[in-house]
Design goal:
about 240 residues; alpha/beta; Rossmann fold; six-stranded mixed sheet; 7 helices
Length: about 240
Amino acid sequence: MSILNIKNINSLDSKKKNEILSECNILISKYSAEERINWALKNLPNTHIMSSSFGIQSIVLIHLMTQKKPDIPIILIDTGYLFPQTYNFIDMLTDKFQLNLKVFRSKISPAWQESRYGKLWEKGITGINFYNNINKVEPMNIAFRQLSVQTWFSGLRREQSKSRSALNYLSIQNGIFKILPILDWSNTVVNQYLKLHNLDIHPLYSQGYVSVGDVHTTKKYTLGMSEEETRFFGLKRECGLHDN
């Protein structure tokens, strides 16, 4: 099977599948972010979507993607505990760029969750994992089913954390193609892109935040910290959406 005809890769055995994915990763590692997006839109199966947390640097992939596919569905998982500044940022960008925003939430409201389970984020790694499963993983899985997702664009970057340092540009997660166009971008390149295109930065960046999630598990950056230590009390980096 040619790497330019990989839409039926999930029907192959694991060895052959890994060989093709490896060839694809070698190929697109030489591409620019824009070329990776073009390649994925052409060669990976529809339905294409992207996910966004509308965090500090999320506008970069949103801008890149909407230049190539303006109506691409953008999945936001709303936990109900985002910063007020984040909700305002989402509204502003959605209006400014006419985003095709798709919002998904837990079936259990935040108030009901706290009544049932208490403040899960205060209950160590077990509580945090349970919280993330209810508020992030399950709503994302619903989004994938409802939108019949086949290809998922995400803005993960290797520089963001140790857990992301070994990621590939292209992988398959739960049967869905996952493509990371800006995986190799450094913070310097990100900032250059923001300035070049005069893009809006999350308002909390000016207050010392380098990564933004929920209000109760996000801390300001202080000297000596790594970016990943600003999330989940330093206990973990990933919320479960990007765990293979």
